[in-house]
Write a sequence for this structure.
């Protein structure tokens, strides 16, 4: 079982390095989607990958938060 523990730890560290901080989390084309409530947003993004190019969507990338990105 040491190999399973190693893989679990390695996967967890990789996820944290990618910015994962909630579950479920998906990374699609470099965009991080987390939480069950983001499922419809993922579906919209898959149907229209340019969805995040709009000025309204770009604005939410810069909402205020602390140094860890918490809002």
């Amino acid at each position: 079982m040491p190999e399973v523990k190693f893989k679990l730890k390695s996967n967890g560290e990789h996820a944290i390095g990618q910015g994962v901080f909630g579950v479920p989390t998906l990374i699609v084309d470099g965009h991080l989607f987390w939480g069950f409530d983001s499922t419809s947003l993922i579906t919209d993004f898959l149907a229209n990958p340019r969805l995040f190019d709009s000025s309204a969507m770009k604005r939410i990338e810069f909402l205020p938060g602390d140094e860890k990105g918490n809002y």
